[in-house]
Amino acid sequence: ILSCDISNGIVVAGGSDKTCRVWNSRTQRMIHQLVGHAHKVTCVRLFSSEHGVISGSADRSLKVWDISRQTYRQTTTLRHSATANCIDVGLDSFTAVSGHNDGGIRFWDVRTGERTADIPREYFWFLFIEGKV
Questions:
Q1: Structure confidence by residue, pLDDT tens digits, 86-113
Q2: Phi-psi region for residue 47, left (φ > 0), alpha (ψ -120 to 50) or beta?
Q3: What is the pLDDT of the chain when averaged over all its residues?
Q4: Residue 66, burial from CB neighbour count under 10 angstroms (0-12, 13-18, 19+)
Q5: Which of 33, 38, 99, 104 could form a disulfide bond with 86, CB atoms 3.0-4.6 angstroms apart?
Q6: pLDDT tens digit string along 8-46?
Q7: Cα–Cα distance between 84 and 14 in angstroms, integer?
């Protein structure tokens, strides 16, 4: 397991086998196996509604999964130029932010798959030089 998240008895974990597994911690049973990444899964996050999962991979994609039914389905793939190491989602469940190994931060609209903002590594370096971080 390279990344995991837990919320109200639901646990999601991703690893080097390129999949995410969703578990019910109360029954200790796997309820979904999310298959679709081409490389290891580096980060996962549950949406606040617990009906969705977002996963990041070394294949340089983020995938949004609907886990509200017995069978899961992939709803959106977000493409980028660097591996995501961390991810979080907004309370609205429409916005995601990802941190990448190139030092950048990217903001996403998970409904459309569009990148809405990008903060490059150079911006953080500028703030460091100026003594603001």
A1: 999 988 888 999 999 998 999 999 888 8
A2: beta
A3: 87
A4: middle
A5: 99
A6: 889 999 999 999 999 999 999 999 999 999 999 999 999
A7: 13
